[in-house]
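Collaboration report, partner site 2.

Our partner group contributed sequences for two proteins of shared interest, and the home lab folded both. The records are reproduced in the order in which they were received, starting with the first partner submission.
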Amino acid sequence: MPNVVIVGAQWGDEGKGKVVDIYTEYADDVIRFQGGNNAGHTLVVGDQKTILHLIPSGILHPGKRCIIGNGVVLDPRVFIKEIEGLKARGYMQDDGQLVIDGNVHIIMPWHTAIDIAREEAKGDRKIGTTGRGIGPAYEDKIGRRGIRLNDLVRPDVFARKVDEYLPEKNFLLEKFLGKPPLDRDAIIDEYSTYAETLKKYLGCSSTLLGQSVKEGRNLLFEGAQGALLDIDHGTYPFVTSSSTVAGGACTGSGIGPRHLDQVIGISKAYVTRVGSGPFPTELHDEMGDALRKAGQEFGSTTGRPRRCGWFDAVALREAVRTSGLTGLAITKLDVLNDLETIKICTGYSYRGDMLEHFPRDFEVLRECKPIYEELEGWQSDISEAKSLDALPAAARAYLDKLAEVAGCPPVLISVGPRRDQTIQLSNPFA
């Protein structure tokens, strides 16, 4: 049976939550494979909005198994609050619906404290971190000094590791960053209560997924952030701390690459970015403000206003290549409803030269100027369109152009935030 990976094809915030929610209908297991609560997936079911930060978007569907893979870093406080919120609204009545891999790394209080203090110390050189402790948690994971869920649920192991790591963290906080130290006993007391709740969800994603493959179950892998924020392939250093490209689905869940069949990239019909970093098509004028207002472009995790710009085909082609995209889900097409003309960036100009490929060199990228092609807008409401033929000719022409310049066919078009405001052109699970 088909197994499908969903990744962001821009700088995040592309609408992955809605697309995962739609494709969950065809899946048996939904797996989150990287990132932490620096991501927020917004879902609208009927008139009810749900924002999830850690739990896979498939949790709103009864009978679906949701797995948090080993590639995720997990803040227990945020996770438990999310669980409580879902249960209060009638979701997730069966705890067996959710599994957390025992090798998930735990975000500790020192991670958030260091994250915030470092960003404050940068002054005007800030990278735009959410301050959720994600980067420092991944640092400790790579440095082999992390605390995993398997450690947290064993009181003696957890206490030993806190005693081993906390003195170094307090030294950094006090002596270098000028912040107060953290209390050892308070941390152990607080996190021991979290362990009791998390224990019931403990499992092994790799073993479960291996069994699912044998049984022919459909797997849906849910990424966070976007391909251009990948730690290796993004606009470094203005990136996140995990592998956001499709290859991260394998390392972040314990499944082999031969079991992945389709990779769907999510892209807005324009582009947004949160935080600092190069953004060639960014609009600093009234048009940028209009896109932000029409698209309600404010971070679901931080509330920060998103930077807005025209669709960037050069950047998208980078995501097509690095993630091996087999199809595109185009979201928020309706945000462009009122525009008389719409621009698409098809290339960059760099010191007089034409670039068709996304520069990996940050110093080059920040000097790139977009080369635009202008298309006619449709200036009509498309939010209730149920098929491609129901869209205005200008909207269909815009979609055709996006597919042409991106080099990847569209498989889904979102014309509004609700589940039913979606045009499916093909089903990756078919």
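Second partner submission, folded after the first:
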Amino acid sequence: MSVWDELVGQQEAIDVFRAASESELASATSHDSAMTHSWLVTGPPGSGRSNLAYAFAASLLCRDGGCGKCSDCTQVAARTHPDLATLTTERVIISIDEVRALVQSSQYSPAVSRYRVIVIEDADRMAERTSNVLLKALEEPPERTVWILCAPSEADLIPTIRSRVRSVRLRVPSVPDVAKLIVARDGVDEVTAERAARHAQSHIGMAHRLATNPEAAARREETVRLVLNIMTVREAVLAAARMIEIATDDAKAITEERDGVELDQLRRSMGIAEGDAIPANLRSQVKGLEEQQKRRATRSLRDGLDRILVDLLSVYRDVLRLQLGVSDELINVEFENELRAAAAARTSEDTLATMEAIGEARERIDANVAPALAMEALLIRASRSEVPA
């Protein structure tokens, strides 16, 4: 099985990257139309941007073009290949020091492969000053260095970087394609996989979580029920508070287990047995890890709130479809009776206004507005969309 086999619904993008990695001229001339030294993979969350980036990296570093079985492919999958450098952040932004270190490492020659490949996930999280540090590396790249950036859209990067990369846009994979992947990869039944893929709106990572984590699926179901049952301002305020609790619980579930594993690994690397006190000269390392984990928790909470808002958007999308007389392809088909009641209780104009309010809430939370205020304002707006009897 090659590195391309688990990529869902992205055949056009795969063809572009395969042509580049297989090009006979890639190592001979910069005039080769298939290969270039810098790439930008864009697409909506869950479309598989980073998966495609690492598949391309494996195809460049593998002697067989990404066989998926050799030590090169295995090391790329584990992010341990000596000619692969990666930058992914669990914070709100990528720091300038992180990019400087990566740019410096890009000057090294490949150790064992044809190329040295550098992948930056979430490249949209770079401030302009940080982006300018990367720009210099893209303007004068070493001969055998390949940069692969990942971002939701080209507009998320500064124009000077966009002009120096070759962009490959990913599409949203279909629900059947994602469900098929979940069945094959996670071993769940077809009904569970289809429901998870539909609720995740083809977001591959979220579909996996909903299909394999009953608690995550239950939290989503509660979110949908909450918004469909809001009738008054008081209920809107209470629902906003509960949704923040749901997002917090979800974030904790994602981070707590990982935090414990990281701390255990750090203790072992420092030779400290479980239960032993940490020597004073090593406490700074533990403190550094704890601060990193706090930053990750902050981002995880923000991501959890955004997932809730995306779920709310799916509810009002279904309501609008019913108002327009289109009853097929509902995302939340399990709640069809409640959706029909909501559709009858408001106008399509109000539904559209509520959907716009969800977009505004996402922007406000991203701009560090207090989540409670943003959620309350949104749900109060939604509660006032009811048509008076």
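Feedback sent to the partner group on the second submission included the following. Residues 49 and 127 are 20 Å apart (CA to CA). The longest strand covers residues 145-151.
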